[in-house]
C-alpha cells in the first residue's frame, strides 16, 4: 500500500526530471542517454510495484521494439537531412539559415532519437529477463 | 546534393538503416527484401568507391562537416576500398543464400531479427574499414562483434550457445585491449584521427606508453583475427553457427581484423617503429608458422567437416600474418591477395557445407560418406575449394602462395619456401579426408535417397567457387589492387 | 619529482583491469566470468576519464566566470563505451540464461562434460563400425 502511494507520487516526478535532463542537455550536463535511462527506470519501478503484466499493457512489446528501431531511424534521418539540404552526413550547420540555430535543431532531434532508443532497449532487456522467470 | 561525394558514408548508413527498418516491418519477406536491397546497394557503392579511389588515390569525408583532426573522418584508400568490395560482395552473395538456409535452421518468427542482425554485422564490418577514427573503429568493431555473437547463438546445436559465449568473452577481452591501446595513444597525443596519430606519433615512437599501446593493440586485434595461439574461440564458433553465418563470418570477420592490424601497424605506428626497432618480424614469423603447422595438423584429426575447415581457417590466417612479417611490398601484397582469395574460397566452402547439411542432415565425416555420389555437384565444388586451400595452380590459393614464396625468396629465406610447401602438404591431408569419405565410401543406407541441393543454395555457393577459379587465372583485379594498397601502406606509391 | 603514487589513478585502473581479467580466467561460473569482464571494462572507463579531468576545471560550457575547462571528449567516448559494455553484458547474460535452460548448469566444467557425450548418436554408432 505504502509502495503504491509513494510510487504513484514519485513516478510523475521521475518522468518530469527525465524531461528536464533531456531538454536542458544543450546548456547543462544531461542528454538523451541519461533521460532515456531515467524514463526506463521509472517504467521498471512501475512494473515492480504494479506487476509486470500491467506494465506490459502500458508499454506493450511491439511498442518497445518499435521504439528501439524508431529512435535509431530518427537519428539516421537527421543525418540524412543534413545530406538532403546540401551538407555532409550529420551536418547540423546547414539545418537552419543560422548555423548556431542549426546546431541546436540538429542536436535536439538526435538526442530525442537517442532517448527513445535507450529507453526502448533498457525496457526490452528488462522485459526479456523478467519474462523468462515467469514462463517457467 | 551530389550523391557521388557522399558514397563513403552511404556505404555504412544504408545497411545500418535497413536493420531498424527490418525490425519495424516485423515480416520476414519484407525484411529480407529490404536488407537484400541495402546489401546490394552497398556492394554497388563499394565498386564505385573502388573506381573513384583508382582515379584519385584517396577519399576523405568529414562527418558533420567538422574538418578531420577534430571531427570523425571517413577515409578510403586502395586497401580500404578493396576490403569494402570484398566484405560487401561476400554479403551480397551470402544473403540470398541465407534465406533458403535459415528456413531449415532458425525459427520462422525470428527471421526478421536475423536479417536485422546480418545488416548490423555488415555495417559494422564496413564501418571498421571505412573509418579514419580510432574510437569509431572500436565502436564499429563492437557492433559487428555483438551481432555476430547473437547470430552464432542462433545455431541449431546447443553447443552454439557455449561457442557464442566463449567468443563473447574472448572478443570482449580483445576489444577492451584495443580500447586500452587507443586510450594510451589518446593520452599521449590528444587525437583519435588515425592519420593525425600517424603524424604525431613519429616523434615519440620509443616512449613507453606508446610501446604499451602497441602491445595492447597487437594482442587485442590478434584475438579478433584469431592469430595462433589466440584462436580458441574460432573453431566452435564456426562449427556450430548457422551455415550462412559460418560462411559470412569465415569470409569477412577475420579479414577485416587483419585490415585493422595493417592499418594500425603501417598507417599509425609506422613501419620503422613496429618492425625495425622491435623484433615484431621474428615474433610474427614464429606465430604464423606455428599457426600454419599446428592448426593444419589439428584439422587433420577432426571428425566434423565444419570444424575441420575452421581449423584450416586458423592455418590460413597464418599465411596472412606470414606476409605481414616480411615487411616488404611483396609480402604485404601476398597478405592482401590472400585476404581476398581465402575469403572467396572459404566463403564458397562453408556455403557448400551448408548445402550438404541441407541434403544429408549434418557434416560429420561419418554422415557424409558417399556424398560424392549423392550430391556430385556440391562435392565437386568442395573439392575445388579444397584444391584452392592447398594451393594448386589454376585456383586462387595458388596465387597467394606464389606471392608468399616470392616474398620469402626476396628475403633470401629458402627454408621458408620449403616450410610453405610442407604446410600445403598438411592441407592435402585434411582435404583428402573429405575426398576419401565422399568418393570411396558408399552412402549410409538411410541417406542414400538424399538429393542435390536446391538452386537457391547452389547458385550463391557456385558464384564463390567460380570466383575462386577466376581469381586463380585472372589476377589483374586482386594482385593489381593489392600491390597498389601495399605500396600505399609502405608509403612508396602515392 | 614524481613519486610512486602521484599517478595513483593508473594504479587503480591497473588493479581493476588485472582483477577483472583474473576473474574471467580463474572462475568456472559463467556469471562470475561476466562479472570479471564488466570489471575489466570498467577499468578502461577510468583510464579515459582520469586524465580528462583538470583540477579546478569545470564543464566546458563557455561562461565569463570560468577560465579552466575539463576536456569533455573522454566523457563522450566513455558514454559510448558504457553503452557497449551494457550491450555486451546483456547479451552475455542472455546467453547464460539460454545455456542454463539447455544444459541445466552454468558451471563451465560441467558443460564441457555434458558436451563430451555424443550429441548425435547415429553418427557415433556408424563411426565406431568404420
Hey, roughly how much beta strand do the residues of chain C contain?
under 5%
| Uncertain ranges of chain C | 120-130
Q: How many helix segments of chain A?
A: 5
The end-to-end span of chain C amounts to 75 Å
Q: Label the overall shape of chain A.
A: elongated
* Major sheet size, sense and barrel closure of chain C: none
What kind of oligomer do you see? heterotrimer
Poorly predicted regions of chain A: none
Can you tell me about this structure?
The complex is a heterotrimer of chains A (136), B (494) and C (130). By secondary structure, chain A is an all-alpha fold. Chain A has helices at residues 2-23, 32-50, 52-58, 61-84, 99-135. Chain A has one domain. Chain A is 80% helix and 0% strand. Chain B has a domain at 285-494. Chain B is built from 20 helices and two strands. Chain B starts with 6 loop residues before the first helix and ends in a 5-residue tail after the last helix. The model of chain B has no long low-confidence stretch (mean pLDDT 89). Chain C is built from five helices and no strands. Chain C has one domain (8-109): Helix Hairpins, CATH 1.10.287.3510. With 130 residues, chain C is mainly alpha-helical. The model of chain C is unreliable at 120-130 (pLDDT under 50). Chain A binds chain B through residues 62, 65-66, 68-70, 72-73, 76, 79-80, 82-94, and chain B through 1, 6, 9, 13, 16-17, 19-21, 23-24, 26, 61-65.
Question: What attributes characterize this protein structure?
Answer:
heterotrimer, A: 136 residues, mainly alpha, 5 helices, C: 130 residues, Helix Hairpins, 70% helix
SSE map:
The complex is a heterotrimer of chains A (136), B (494) and C (130).
Chain A: H1 2-23, H2 32-50, H3 52-58, H4 61-84, H5 99-135
Helix pairs in contact in A: 1-2, 2-3, 2-5, 4-5
Chain B: H1 7-25, H2 28-56, E1 59-62, E2 73-76, H3 78-105, H4 111-130, H5 134-153, H6 159-189, H7 194-201, H8 208-225, H9 233-240, H10 243-269, H11 271-276, H12 280-300, H13 305-326, H14 329-360, H15 371-374, H16 376-390, H17 396-410, H18 414-440, H19 455-473, H20 476-489
Antiparallel strand pairs in B: 1-2
Helix pairs in contact in B: 1-2, 1-4, 2-3, 2-4, 3-4, 3-10, 3-14, 3-19, 3-20, 4-5, 4-10, 5-6, 5-10, 6-8, 6-9, 7-10, 8-10, 9-10, 9-13, 10-13, 10-14, 12-13, 12-18, 13-14, 13-17, 14-16, 14-17, 14-19, 14-20, 16-18, 16-19, 17-18, 17-19
Chain C: H1 8-26, H2 30-52, H3 73-103, H4 108-116, H5 121-129
Helix pairs in contact in C: 1-2, 2-3
